[in-house]
Amino acid sequence: MASGDDDDPIIEEIDVYLAKSLADKLYLFQYPVRPSTMTYDDVNHLSAKIKPKQQRVELELAINAMSPNYCRSKGEQIALNVDGTTYDETNTYSGKMMDKQSFTSIQATTNTSRYAAAVFRKGELHITPLTGILQMRPSFSYLDKADTKTREREAANEGDSSQDEAEEDVKAITVRFARPESEQARQRRLQSYDFLQKKQAEEPWVHLHYHGVKDGRSDHERQYLFCQSGDASENSELVKTPKEYLAMLMPPLAEEKVVKPVGPSNVLSMAQLRTLPLGEQVKTLMKNVKLMPFANLMGLLASGTDSTAALRCIQQVALLVQGNWVVKSDVLYPKNTCSPHSGVPAELLCRGRDFVMWRFTLERSVMRKEIASIIKLPPEDVKEFLEHVAVPRVNRGWEFLLPTDAEFVKKHPDIGHRQHMLWLGIQSKLEKVFNFSKEDFRPKNSPQPEPVHVSGEQRLKVAHERAQGNQSSLQKDLDARRAGDGVQVKEEPVEEPMDTSSSVPNGSVNGYPGATSPAFDHTNGDGGNTPAQELQDFVIKTFRKHFVLTLSEFKRLLSLHLASMPVGRSVFPSISDHMLQDAILLCQCKQIMVPFPAQTTAAADEKKVFALWETGDESDKHRRVLYELYKKNYRIRRNVIQVKLTQEFGDFPKADVDRLLHECCISQAGMWYLKGTIHS
């Protein structure tokens, strides 16, 4: 022991004092975006304010607009964007130039019990505990104000649109009476993020006066950093017995109390998450994310985590759906809880959600109405179930959110088999509760038993042989119908249907001549009341009523027309898309090549837009100018259309513009679209 003391002698002893005068109001400010050599000590501080409970500080500092490094044009432009051209007391920049910047604080740490500010003077060290450590970062709230101004100007510019554009759809409002709030619901509301944000906003700002480093008031306040009492006995915190001091250095083992940050109780940082056991980490992640591939889960866990252990944990809190893991219903809705939307007990919620998950094990998409009709839960709860794992698609219902993870299933067949057995057990319980059979939900695209695989070359060869074999009989049938012998229905053997519009060399479609067939009379049709003539009559009648139609919408109208005809009255054969398009183009119509945006979800038939090109009246040339505009843009403002028509035809009345737009277009959010393209 003596030799150790000789090697490390005591050089000096320093008395340490604990100053308490500023213990509850001393903050350390850090400026992480600025080097330590460039302080703000000499910068003019325009204003300062604080919210003491939240330890939130805002500072406004002047900007030297006379500096050679300051761009005056940019400063004036920013001030113009933020405040506009008018002047009032609420303007952010009163000098019509960006001459100040704001700083907002965030807490660098929530536990400052280990931090203090120290001052050394005359051989004495005086330390003062810190109340908070705040990092001051530039605030860009003025950009939000500039965006608001821009939106207001755009709304004002759209004010010249017709009343139809601004008219909003009438929506039905459901009136509900609030239930008495339970204690559990009240606790959840008090811990919600919105409630905490509201409480934080209620704390008023306390405005402060800033004093510079060299100010006399600052010198006076700095004196409080020194202990005001010279009697060491009053500093009881620093007068400890050796045993007490040793206990402070090496405290007994006890459960460490984690100081949680100010925020919602259901928010957990990744640093805090990784202090939990592996099972709790997996449960917390799945409870928050709801749906996740196993590879993503491993990426969120700490590096070096054993994948086998993670697989054991995830099977306790999640089920496998299409190769992805979905959190179990009883984890989301524990026993003795209820729905935050409708108050439905957790037991019923779990059964309904299990049914939704089971349906996704069978197919990629489900229909919300079908789900709601079976589980018979409020629509808010059904929507929540679907939003956890799916997204709505136009005309396809709700589609599973993630692609099937076939790689995981292939890599872990034992887990896939075990999960399949679990789903069979869940299915048997659901069948008893909801009284259904799995056969009721067989996917439409499920493979038929014992499918026959035929190559493309074999299909083409068979089609050519079939067309050549049937050519003579088809021609005889056509001649007989032209001779007025009546319509004869040829009985074909039951076999796989095919599109003969591309494989029959004589241009006929399902036994009838198409628009491109040599046997088709483009002048007089096919004689009498033939299918081709009937189709052309329907095309002309429909387009004179609607003017603009997509191929998808035209097919829908044709289906309605066929359904309205008496039984046995229909003379239409099976019609291909090619035949429909040919018939439309033969009836004074043209296809408008609308440049749809890249992110459109429109189907191929919805992108084919046809318009009536010629009717014989004066409005034809007006419509053609409109169509030419839509070949360049898929949505256009009204004033652009007005200007173009005025340039082409001189003074163009507003009433004629309204009539033209209502014939061919439809409006949404101040923009005009061709009919049928607004969904994009």
UniProtKB/TrEMBL annotation:
Gene Ontology annotations of biological process type: tRNA transcription by RNA polymerase III
Pfam families for the chain: RPC5, RPC5_C
Region described as Disordered: 146-169, 461-528
Domain DNA-directed RNA polymerase III subunit RPC5 C-terminal span(s) in chain numbering: 443-680
Biased composition (Basic and acidic residues): 146-156, 476-492
Gene Ontology CC terms: RNA polymerase III complex
Biased composition (Polar residues): 499-509
Source superkingdom: Eukaryota
Database matches in InterPro entries: RNA_pol_III_Rpc5, RPC5_C
Record protein name field: DNA-directed RNA polymerase III subunit RPC5 C-terminal domain-containing protein
